[in-house]
Specification:
By secondary structure, the chain is mostly helical. It has helices at 2-8, 14-42, 45-59, 65-80, 87-112. The protein has 5 helices and no strands.
Amino acid sequence: MRAITQLAEGDDQGDKFINEIITVFLADLDERVSRIGDLAIQGDRAGVAAMAHAIKGSCGHFGALLLLQLTRDLEIVAKKDQTGPLQPAIDAMIEEAERVRAALEAYRSERSAPTSGAT
């Protein structure tokens, strides 16, 4: 978040910009996580790997390093181990995605909360 916050500093629309980026990321994350579940049910390991790769690409921008690692792990398992179970890796990724969602929503809420200067 530090990099995104620095981009928005000194800009009158900075908080709005950050809120919009978080909204887009979370919507995209939800869609891709859901899609991974569908692809896993269909047995489309290449699709799971591709979707995990797509999630991985945007995680670093938000400091979601554990989610980045878990999606990297899922991508590797889906590509390299054609018979091993995917569900444990998917479950770990989903759990971390939910934690990232909560953290970003809390961050967004803090940034948009009015500051009280008068008592």
